[in-house]
Amino acid sequence: GRYKTMIIDDNLIFSNLEYENSNEVLKFLSDNLEKNGYVKESFYDGLLEREAVYPTGLDFGEYSIAMPHTEVEHVLKSTLSIATLKKKVNFKCAEDHSKNTPVEVVCVIAFGEKEDKIDVLTKLISFFGNKEEFYKMLASDKDNLIKIVKKHLEN
Asked: Which residues on neighbouring strands pair with residue 103, listed in sequence order?
């Protein structure tokens, strides 16, 4: 569908980030998105506000991911920023807001006007739900991580 307008930019993909908590991870990724011209300065606060109300931690059983995103007014250009984490950080579960889940991969989504959100989220969930690829991602350095992400998400 319209998904292919999403840009996968090598500067937005990170392997083995190490932070103490989810806010620090989101701050790093938000600042980097801003520096690269994809989002406004307000993006980070927007992420935290939305995450507080609609958390995005997804538990796949053996592992968990998070897909934080926010309102379109904080976004300049649509893109994804994906990071694997050296140390898991807790996000609240999308399914049950009273529960935390330890997340190993964070995918921050900058949704612009044109994106079909459901389309994008569905594609990402099926990608991250692929156990074999997921463990490959965790074991990857930045270059390999970029290859895996592009192979699955750029078409």
From this structure: 64, 89
Return d(Cα 128, Cα 28) in angstroms, integer: 21
- Beta strands across the sheet bearing 79-92: 13-17, 79-92, 100-110, 64-66, 57-59
- CB neighbour class for 155 (10 Å; exposed up to 12, middle 13-18, buried from 19): exposed
Tokens read off for 3: 């998904």
What percentage of the chain exceeds 70 in pLDDT?
95
**Nearest residue to 55 (alpha-carbon basis) of 63, 47, 43, 64:** 47
Please name the residue ranges forming H helices in 4-140: 22-35, 43-53, 117-128, 131-139
pLDDT for the residue numbered 1: 41
